[in-house]
Amino acid sequence: MHEQTIPQPVRPHRPALEYNATVIGSGKVHDELLLLEVRLDRERFICEPGQYTTLALGGWEPRVDGLMTTSECWKSRLVRRAYSVSSPMLDPTGSPVDFRALDFAEFYIALVLKPTDDPPQLTPRMFKLKPGDRIHMGPLGHGTYNAAPVGPDDNLLFIGTGTGEAPHNAMAVERLRAGHKGRIAIVTSVRYRRDLAYIRKHRRLEEMFDNYRYVPVMTREAEIASPDETGFIGRRHVQELFSGGELFEPLGWEPSPENTHIYLCGNPAMIGAPQHDRTGHFVFPEPPGMVELLLHLGYRLDRPRKPGNVHFEKYW
Question: Of 192, 250, 275, 297, which one has the fewest beta carbons inside 10 Å?
């Protein structure tokens, strides 16, 4: 999902003309990961678990990296980007949160700062936000990435990389609250253990629901050796763990195309979304991603007017 500018320029000294929401919570997991809570001024945010909306800030706002805007055109415009809506997962009493009853939206945001001639315009500004700051937020959720096709007895496997976990948190908790009878699991692939922002809440849900599992996979850190920290997989990628069957032990069950829906969100290399060639056949990227692997195992890609049990959302 790429950053875009809203075409109409706004005055840098009058942001209230465009801002329609307030930051009510801003907590850094670490310097490169942020949990942000935003509440609309007058409207109630309407969104289904799994959907995304847009956030926007003016190009005149300060950046956490201290860089100056490289182009004059950014200084008088809103910069916006689509973000999947996450979930706080647990309410203040420790129970699974009612997503549709929330009067705010939670976002899980990563800051990527690499030397480039075209630095990101929005996320470095998001990391400067604090409670009480103003922002623009779309009033509605968008997209078809949701758990609507899933029956109450079907198994659900969510596989995400990094902040691609966000929509999975919202969908999984909503299904658990509804008394879903099938198995539900979230697999989250990150570089390091410190990138697992929601792990304590996932562990709490595992204690509450026998049919729920959370499996963290780390690509650059070894497995946790401490006896009180189990269920981690280190220095591996999801694709190889799934194809080799090693993912099934921590899951506690083996997914099957007969009764399982699989959701993929995050890095395109993990997803491996196909393109159509001139004859209408799928062409897959190299190296293979999860989509190609799953289709070879008998799963079906979910498409308009052609329902399937493999669903994906690309982040960039």
Answer: 275
Q: How many CB atoms lie within 10 A of CB 48?
A: 21
Closest CA to 236 of 249, 251, 221, 226: 221
pTM reported for the whole predicted model: 0.90
Contacts of 312 (CB under 8 A, 6+ apart): 145, 263, 264, 265, 271, 273, 291
Output the six-digit token pair for 41.
């001024």
Domains (ranges, CATH) in the chain? 4-137 (2.40.30.10), 155-314 (3.40.50.80)
CA dist., res. 171 & res. 157, Å (int): 11
Residue among 110, 124, 123 at smallest CA distance from 55 = 123
Q: Rounding to the nearest 10 degrees, give the CA dihedral for residues 200, 146, 79, 28.
A: 0
Q: What is the 3-state secondary structure (H, E, C) of the chain?
A: CCCEECCCCCCCCCHHHCCCEEEEEEEEEECCEEEEEEEECCCCCECCCCCEEEEEEECCCCCCCCCCCCCHHHHHCEEEEEEECCCCCECCCCCECCHHHCCCEEEEEECCCCCCCCCCCCHHHHCCCCCCCEEEECCECECCCCCCCCCCCCEEEEEEEHHHHHHHHHHHHHHHHCCCCCCEEEEEEECCHHHCCCHHHHHHHHHHCCCEEEEEEECCCCCCCCCCCCCCEECCCHHHHHHCCCCHHHHCCCCCCCCEEEEEEECHHHHCCCEECCCCCEECCCCCCHHHHHHHCCCCECECCECCCEEEEECC
pLDDT digits (tens, 9 = 90+) for 187-237: 999 999 999 999 999 999 999 999 999 999 999 887 654 444 556 676 788
pLDDT in tens, 165-188: 999 999 999 999 999 999 999 999
CA distance 23 to 134: 6
